[in-house]
Every structure is written in C-alpha cells, then in structure tokens.
Amino acid sequence: MSTDYLILGARLLGEEPADLVLRDGVIASLGADTAHPRDGVELVTVDADGLLALPGLVDLHTHLREPGREDTETVLTGSRAAAAGGFTAVHAMANTTPVADTAGVVEQVHRLGIDAGYVDVRPVGAVSVGLEGTRLAELGAMASSAAGVRVFSDDGHCVDDPVLMRRALEYVKSFDGVIAQHAQEPRLTVGAQMHEGVVSAELGLAGWPAVAEESIIARDILLAEHVGSRLHVCHLSTAGSVDIVRWAKARGIDVTAEVTPHHLLLTDEQARSYDPRYKVNPPLRTAEDVEAVRAGLADGTIDVVATDHAPHAAEDKDCEWPAGAFGMTGLETALPVVQATMVETGRLTWADVARVLSTTPARIGRVSGQGRPVAVGEPANLTLVDPAARRRVEPAAQVTRSRNTPFAGTELPGRVVATFLRGRATVYDGAPVAHEEVNA
Amino acid sequence: MRHLLSTAELTRDEAVRILDTAEAMAATQGRSIKKLPTLRGRTVVNLFFEDSTRTRISFEAAAKRLSADVLNFSAKGSSVSKGESLKDTALTLQAMGIDAVVIRHHDSGAPHRLAHSGWIDVPVLNAGDGTHQHPTQALLDAFTLRRHLSADGETPAPEDTALDGASVVIVGDVLHSRVARSNVSLLHTLGARVTVVAPPTLLPVGIEPWPCEVRYDLDEALAEAVPDAVMMLRVQRERMTSAGGFFPSPHEYHRRYGLDGERLARLPERCVVMHPGPMNRGLEISAEAADSPRSTIVEQVGNGVAVRMAALYLLLAGEEGIA
What we know:
Chain B: One of its GO terms (molecular function) is aspartate carbamoyltransferase activity. With 440 residues, chain A is α/β, with parallel strands linked by helices. Helices cover 28% and strands 22% of the residues of chain A.
C-alpha cells in the first residue's frame, strides 16, 4: 500500500509554517491542511511543529567505497547514512576498486544506488584511466551510460598534467559535464601529513603547504577561462584559495567551489593529539583559513558545502599519524556543522543553507528533480529538521559503517527527523526506515 | 613525570631535577662496581622501529646499571616487518608484564600515541621520533653544557643550576632534526639564549614562534651570539642529491655552514663544540673541529648513559632514594 503524507506546520526554509501534502512522489499541496484520505492509500500525518522543511540535501562529494572496500562502506550503508543526514542525492566518487573509469563501473554503482533506494546515487566518473593522470578515461561513454555521469573527478589525486586537465575541461563540454578537481600540486606535497605552518614545524610532521592547493586552483581557473569550460573546485581549504576563486568569479569565469564541514569547524591545532582521526586531505588549516572559508561561503564565493564523506576501517585510524589514512566521515554531521558555524553565527539563513546544500550542488551536478523549490508540483524530496535539538556525536550511534568521525564527543545542533525521497520516507522519527520498506 | 615524550613538556624544575639526578647517577659510575639495585625486578623494553645501535646501547647500559631487565625489540626481522601494527606490538608487550617502554620510531608522534591511546599503561620514554623530538639527547647536551659552564666539563655541576645566560648556536638541518627541536625548547626552558643557523631550505615554515633567533649566515651569527656552545647537526648527504634537493652540493654546504678550522679558531675561548653524532666529517664538521680539545662529542656519549639512568629512575622509581 502506498502512503500519502500530511506534514503539519513545518517552517518552509525556516520561514512561515505551512502544511504540505506529499502524494504520488510530488508536493501535492502547500498551505493549509488540504489532504483527503484516498481509497487504498494510507495517510500519515506528521506533526512538524517547530521543524524546518528543507529541500532534500545533495552532496557533490561522497565516498561510498563500493566496489572494493565494502568493509568500510557500501552503497547501501552509505546512502542510508546520507538519508539520515537529510540527503536525497549523493555523488559517489570514482576512487573505488576497480576505479569508476568505465561505463560498466558507473552503471554498477548507479544500479546499487537504485537497489538501495535511500537517495539518488549519482556516480562520478574518473577523469583519467585508473586515476593515473596520464590519459582520458572514456568520459563520453560514462556520460551516455544509464548512470548519465556529468561530474568527473580523479578525487584523491590531482589532475596535475596541465595538458590532460585542459583536454578534460574541453572534452566534457559536449555533454555539459564538469571537471571537479582535487587541487594538490603533487611535487609540493610529497609525504605531506598536515597543514604546513606553525603547528607542523613544532610537531615534526611533513607539511602540506597552502600554495600546493592555490597554485593548481589558479592554473585551472585560467585554463577554464581559456577553453571556455566549467570547473568545479573540490574541498577548497585555504584563505588564498577563496581569494583566487573570488577573483575568478569577478572576472566572469565559470568556476564553482565547495568547502567541507570539517574545514568550516576544525583547525590544524587538532593534530597536536597525533590522532589520525584528524588526518584528512586537504588537511585541516589554521583559524584564519577557517574564518576565510566561512566568509567565502557567506558571500557566495564558495558555492556549496560538500561532505567528502570518507569512511575508513578502524585499524587505519587507530595507529600512528603518518600510518593513518586520510579522510573523515561527514554525511550525518554536515547539516549540524553548517548550522553551528553558519546559521547560529548569523552568516547564512536557512534559505541560504538550502542553496548551498541542495539547489546549487544539484545544479552543478546537473541532477534533475533534486534541489528544487519547495512548491506544488515539485518532486517531494524533502528533509524535516529540528533545529532546536542538540546532540553529542557518538561514533557507534552513527548509521555509516565506519567510525572515523572527527566530531566524536562534540555537541552539535540540529537533528534530521524525517527525509523523503519522491514522497517516500527514507528517514522517519529520526531513524532510517528499514531497507525492505524503502525498497518496497 | 609520567612519560618523557618531549622537552617542550618539561618545566624548568623538572628539567633541573633530571640533570641533578643524572649527576648523582654519574657519581656512581666512577665506582668499580657500577650497578645499582634500584630497578631490580623491573623490565624495560627497548622498542626500536628505526636502527640506532648507539642510542639503543646507551639505553640498555642505563637500564642494566639500574639492575633492570632489558628486552630489546627491533622492528627488523620481527613481527613488525610482517605487518604488525604499533598497537598490536604494544598490546603484546603489555601482556608480557613490562614496566616501561623506550621507543624509537620513524614516525613523528608515535611515542605520544603509544602513551595516550590507551594501548598500554606504562611509562613511555621517547628515544627519538621522526623529525619531532629526542628529549634524552637534549638533556644530555644540557648536562654536558652545564658542567662546562660551571667548571671543566668533568667536575659535577652544582645542584639546582640551570643554563641561565648561556649562548648556544645550533647549526644545520633544523627542518628534519628532532635534536634541534628538543634542544631549542629545553635550552630556552633552562634560561639559555638560542640561535639557530641554517640555509632557509633547512628551516621549517612556521618556525617564527620558536624561542630562538633564526639566522642564515653562520659567520654573522657566531660573531653576534658570542656562543658558549656551538651544536652542529648532522646533515644527510642524500637530502642534497635528489631532485628538489635542499642545497646544491656538499662543498657549498661545508663552505657556508660547516665548522671548519677558520671558524673554529674564531670561536670564543670558552666555547665548546657539540655534535649529537654520528658525524659527517668534512660536511657539517671538519676533522679539526671534531678532534679539537673544545669538542665534547665523546663526553656527550658518556653523559648520555647517566642522563638515561636518571630518566628511567625518575619514571620508574619516582621518589624512592638512590642507593
């Protein structure tokens, strides 16, 4: 039996309360209660007093680890964690085993996403064969496949060869694709462990200088301008990068940029613990950089927040810092961190949050039916959030298969109460709906 | 003191107490029977993930002279070379009922993780981690220097003295040197004035807050600092040869930063020449300087045993008296 939902008194984008009816996968009505029970259809009423209604969140940068590292995450567990975080679509990064550099692999990931049923899983295609940075993968085949890939990235590796980067930028124009660059000059970051600065000097950990990110961003922006292509900058992390992107936008260059929740909140001071839980690439930067990326997100220089959710096995974090893996989980803490750092500081409204976590990432990824306005006739992709809740992050209580959250023990605001994907609840009463029901 | 991980964690009183205790230990080492019963029945593990025969032997001698049982665990040829993690090695040792770990590790921060991750519950003594810290080296350098400031280097230094007013110039590969990091903070804590000198490529970005002067020109630095000690750091030749090398050639390094005969002759009369060893003669130090009467290099090695005895004693026996 299908289900209609009557949501009572949710504040749309944090503004005025309204009642919503979700029926046949779309928002059927908006305003005062207008739901009528239909024959053979269950009508569930949700009391949303005090809750926000946001469009379902869209992540441009997620590592789902399948195929290859199903011990740390699968498309099913990762997309369920995404739903728990309020997402209705995620982009699955290409650095799997095998690499998502063929139509076959992206279709497999796409199919696994449909089977999971929690969010729209949009595979990202590798730019180069095997992420090796030498020759282009079959970008056109991935674009034309059932997965309909539009975002291409060698994430984890930088496309550092300027000729390969130029060709990739040019080539994807024919199918309106975008190159999402992991900006890291490899020679400047050999063996790099953490941000290069005062803290690395003291700790004796090899430095990852800001210039290694900024120089690639600057080069790519000029390349994108030269060939008239679209460029997306992954996980921008430094004050200098914000300045460069701001300059590019003022010049009218078609560049977009993302920042991660962890770069909005944490600094390189965390490395003093030598706990690899805080080891991530690009590394946590200084307090000045944190302020700069917040300002950049507030003024629109940075277009989106993307999680860079990177699950890792316990043994890859319970070790010496240099032996530890780069990356941290983020799907379930993204919205709380944005609330804490941007909304509660008065720098973004909830409507802005919808823009940076839903509308714009959907537009960059060319994801149809996602990131749409909360309006009658639109796909019923929504998340209901209790902004007054405060919770301490408990790794073991998270939905993701991995435990490597840098926020363990931190109290963060906000709680996702329900998430709807085309009118079906994927999260209800604050917990993911069982797979059999989601996939029914 | 629960662990000895970094000289940056030592207060002045703690550091002076270690030096005073080391003098007491050294006094016992002139006897024909050098062994003290203090740590009888205790087991100390030398956990060496990086080859360093001299440091391991020094710790082994120190522990044995305190009557501790010593287990030497070297990563080469052990389960570690078969992929065992530091955590599992630590759990294994803990299960064997050890009382302290002396750890040498190629990764900066490994001793810190060992001490603070809940894997084991015994004192951890850092015998050198990556490019981070080597606290007993800095302590033995301070011990050596303290003796020279008060007397001839062989007479014990008076108790409860520090290094106030002393001027120390540290020269060489500061970027990769745990000896430099340990010494800068300990010497500062003990009241000395520190100048580090290196080519800019061998200084870390972010050195600004360090409690020392930073200079690029050795001759100017020596003239201005009027040092009581010059500490030459080991330079690895291979740092120069690879692409992206840190300096053009060994000859150029020696000309600009080596302690040659001419620079040696210009040093103030009281100034001693120190080196943590092993030396590259002809690169950072000339044979003339290494073998001169000013050189404390061999003394440093001898003092190392007394300082390590003191550190083990304070970590393991605490307030019990010295027999």
